[in-house]
TrEMBL record:
The modification N6-carboxylysine is found at K131. This is Phosphotriesterase. InterPro entries: Metal_Hydrolase, Phosphotriesterase. Belongs to the metallo-dependent hydrolases superfamily. Phosphotriesterase family. Pfam families: PTE. It comes from Streptomyces coerulescens. The keyword Hydrolase applies. PANTHER family: PHOSPHOTRIESTERASE-RELATED, PHOSPHOTRIESTERASE-RELATED PROTEIN. Keywords: Hydrolase, Metal-binding. The keyword Metal-binding applies.
Length: 302
């Protein structure tokens, strides 16, 4: 049976409700030193604020080795009454110590499958997506390695593959690799950050492949995604791809959380939803926030 794999177990896609399809409760990286998301109390307060604003579920895209704190996710989910999805996978090499790759070389796919089916470490929390990343307008050897492992893990489990696009670029190269060379069905691929590069023709080309476009970023004003969001949604929707558009916030630093003075997770149901409904209509926005994420993150788990 198709289901979304949450940290408290598999649920039907229609149970997700209003979904933040790309966000982070916990995140650490040497590239974000001093800005880590590592406070469980703040994470709970953020989830409670999200719930109070009408949110029901969050997909956390924090992958392996970046401080995802999987063991903390089930109690947070219970306390806040919000469904949470945990990720496995790897981001770009710059986010890790080089020796990590020596440990994972030759067994990355096995690690991903283990986290999807058996659980993350001793936590028992099963990941519900595989997170990988491209580079700026390119795919380097690291990206090809991680995406090849992600495709193997997908074939073993049917897990969705979520892709960080650096500055929104490289979408078609990613699809050529994952769906062309590696044979992943396009509808199992979710492209993140595409709206950071406002090439609307590329957006439509990507959607036409059958993949999902996880538009995101309202918590990060320097990407100018807020004022571009209606056009980024409108272009693929008017081309007939409104059913392939989930939406997320992508809170990656502590200062972006609502409890620390930023817009954070509540901004999506509290402000972004109303703005998009005014410009694009409530029917489409309901589909984007409620229906589409369930389809994007559900799998026939093996």
């Amino acid at each position: 049976m198709s289901a979304v794999r949450t940290v408290l177990g598999d649920v039907r896609s229609e149970e997700l409700g209003v979904c933040d399809a790309h966000d982070h409760l916990f995140l650490s990286s040497p590239r974000l030193s001093g800005q880590e998301l590592n406070d469980a109390s703040a994470a709970r307060a953020e989830l409670e604020a999200f719930r109070a604003a009408g949110g029901s579920s969050v997909v956390q895209w924090t992958p392996y080795g970046m401080g995802r704190r999987a063991a903390d996710l089930p109690p947070l989910s219970r306390a806040a009454g919000v469904h949470l999805v945990c990720a496995t996978g790897l981001r770009q090499a710059a986010h890790y110590a080089p020796e990590l790759f020596d440990e994972l070389r030759g067994r990355l796919a096995d690690v991903l499958v283990s986290e999807l089916t058996g659980g993350v470490g001793a936590s028992g929390v099963r990941a519900g997506i595989v997170k990988v990343a491209g580079g700026f307008h390119a795919l380097d050897a690291h990206a090809r390695w991680t995406m090849t492992a992600a495709a193997e893990a997908h074939r073993a489990t049917d897990a969705p593959i979520a892709v960080h696009l650096e500055a929104g670029t490289g979408a078609l190269d990613v699809l050529d690799l994952l769906c062309g060379e590696l044979g992943v069905a396009p509808h199992r691929v979710i492209l993140g950050h595409l709206n950071r590069s406002p090439e609307l023709v590329v957006h439509r080309q990507a959607a036409a492949s059958g993949c999902r476009l996880a538009l995101d970023g309202p918590s990060r004003a320097h990407h100018a995604t807020d004022w571009r969001m209606p056009d980024a949604v409108r272009a693929p929707a008017e081309a007939g791809f409104g059913h392939r558009l989930p939406l997320g916030g992508d809170t990656v630093v502590a200062g972006a959380r609502s409890v620390d003075g930023g817009p954070g997770m509540p901004y999506l149901p509290r402000r972004v939803r109303a703005r998009l409904a005014l410009e694009l209509g409530e029917v489409l926005v309901e589909r984007i926030l409620v229906d589409n994420p369930g389809r994007a993150f559900a799998a026939d788990w093996r």
